[in-house]
Amino acid sequence: MSTYISEPGTRLGGRYRLEDRIAAAGGWAAWKAIDEILARAVTVFTFAPGFPRITEVVTAARAASRLTDARLTQVFDVEDDWDRAYIVMEWAAGEPLDDLLAAGPLDPSRGALLVAEAAAALSVAHAAGLAHLCLVPGSLRWTAGGGVKIVGLGIDAALAGTTDDDPALADTRGLARLLYAALTGHWPGPDSALLPPAPVADGLPRSPRQVRAGVPTILDDITCRALFQQDRRGGTALTTPGQLAGALAAAIPPARPPQAAP
Q1: Is the sign of the CA dihedral 105, 110, 116, 122 positive or negative?
Q2: Quick one: DSSP state of residue 101?
Q3: pLDDT digit string (tens) for 143-178?
Q4: Residues 6 or more apart whose Cβ sits within 8 Å of residue 260
Q5: Which of 7, 22, 174, 196 falls 20 to 30 Å from 14 in CA-CA distance?
Q6: Beta bridge partners of 142
Q7: What would you measure as the largest C-alpha separation in the chain, in angstroms?
Q8: From the DSSP assignment, how many helices (H) and strands (E) are in the chain?
Q9: Considering only CA atoms, which of 163, 174, 159 is closest in space to residue 122?
Q10: 123: which residues sit within 8 A by CB, 6+ positions away?
C-alpha cells in the first residue's frame, strides 16, 4: 500500500510512527513523526504512486545525507521502493524567518548575522555539489539554541522540479532576498503568504534603505550586489554564497565584550 495515503499512527520501516501531516502538494506529503527506536521527532516525506520526480527527490536526499554541517537539516533515512518510498529527516525545530518578522524587521546586525550563517552553510553544500534553489522565508530558521537551520536543501527543488543553469547565482540571489526581508520586513520575490511585497520602482524592488530608515549603507550595498548584481556605487557583484558570507562577515560589527562591574 502506498505510504502517501497513510493515516496518523501508521509505522514506516518498523520505527517511524506518523503523527501529523504538516504539508501536502502535488503527490507528496510531509509528516511530523516519531522515530520510536531513538525516541525523537523527525520529518517524514511520503509520495503518491507514480510520483514523477521520485528519482530526483531520492537522489537529492541521498546527496544531502552526506553533509554533516549542523546548519543544514540532516537526512536520516531513505526508502526508494517504488510506491512505498519515503524520506526521513531531522525535525527542524525553531522559528522560521517569516515568524521572526511578524513584529517587524530584525535589528540589521542580527539579520545580517543570520543570513551570513545561512550563506556559509550553503557554501559548504555547493562545494559538495548540492544547491537549494527554492529559498523562501520558511527555509531559514532560528533555533532555540541560537543557531541557524536551513530546511529543504536539494529536496524542495526536486519536489518542485526546479532547476537552474547557475545554481550558485540562484542561491546567492535567494539568500539576498532573505537578507532584504530581514532588513525591511518585505519580500522582494514572488508572492509570500506572510510578508508584504517589497515596494517597486522601475520594475525592481527598492533598495533596503529606501524601504526602511536606519539600514546601514554597507548592508544596503551588499544586498543590492547580491540581489540585483550591482549597486549604485559601482561595487562588484556577489555571485556565490561564499562571497556573500564573506561580505556580510566583514560588515557585521564585532560583538562587544561584557563591561566589568564598577
Answers
A1: negative
A2: G
A3: 888 899 999 999 999 999 999 999 999 999 999 999
A4: none
A5: 22
A6: 95, 148
A7: 70
A8: 8, 11
A9: 174
A10: 240, 241, 242, 245
